[in-house]
User: Which sequence fits this backbone?
């Protein structure tokens, strides 16, 4: 892992401490990183890959909150680790993912000793808050076709790819609707030449 490249804002002393005390873990695509009700003992930094943060109801239904990519941290893990609280969200590796687990015992020292870590934590909270505001705005003020179009564009922006390898059911789960609704709306978007549909793959035009 090259923390200096991923986190250029960190002081050398902070990099050295993290490399000494943190643990790197690898997750395969589809593996659960964090579960609802689980006590969080570490803050999670994403080194490689992509992590889906979502809520899950009693029936196993999912509601997408946001994604984490390289160089980003899970704000929920930070809050829960500091306050010794259980997680209220699920985190799953969307692709093969490497994360760095920073023990909760280090959090106070990092916040007090390193200004760059303090600023990183504040920025992480702000970024995730902005993400959640976007989710709320989509639910409150947009129709499903607008939500779907925004979802696809955001997915493409975050991955840097115009080809989206998701099934209609996966998209429906993320948007808390039915597969039939998503399939119908995607077909309409294809007719408008906004995208091209393939099996478990969507190519944005």
Assistant:
């Amino acid at each position: 892992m090259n923390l200096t490249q991923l986190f250029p804002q960190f002081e050398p002393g902070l990099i050295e401490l993290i490399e000494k005390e943190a643990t790197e873990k690898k997750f395969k695509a589809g593996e659960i990183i964090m579960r609802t009700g689980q006590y969080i003992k570490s803050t999670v930094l994403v080194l490689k890959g992509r992590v889906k943060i979502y809520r899950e109801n009693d029936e196993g239904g999912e509601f997408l909150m946001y994604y984490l990519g390289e160089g980003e941290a899970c704000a929920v893990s930070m809050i829960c680790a500091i306050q010794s609280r259980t997680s209220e969200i699920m985190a799953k590796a969307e692709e093969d993912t490497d994360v760095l687990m920073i023990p909760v015992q280090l959090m106070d020292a990092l916040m007090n000793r390193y200004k760059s870590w303090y600023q990183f934590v504040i920025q992480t909270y702000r970024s995730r808050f902005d993400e959640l505001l976007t989710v709320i705005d989509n639910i409150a003020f947009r129709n499903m076709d607008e939500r779907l179009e925004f979802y696809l564009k955001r997915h493409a922006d975050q991955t840097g790819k115009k080809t989206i390898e998701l099934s209609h059911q996966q998209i429906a789960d993320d948007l808390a609707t039915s597969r039939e609704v998503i399939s119908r709306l995607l077909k309409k978007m294809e007719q408008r030449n906004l995208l091209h549909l393939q099996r478990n793959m969507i190519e944005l035009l």
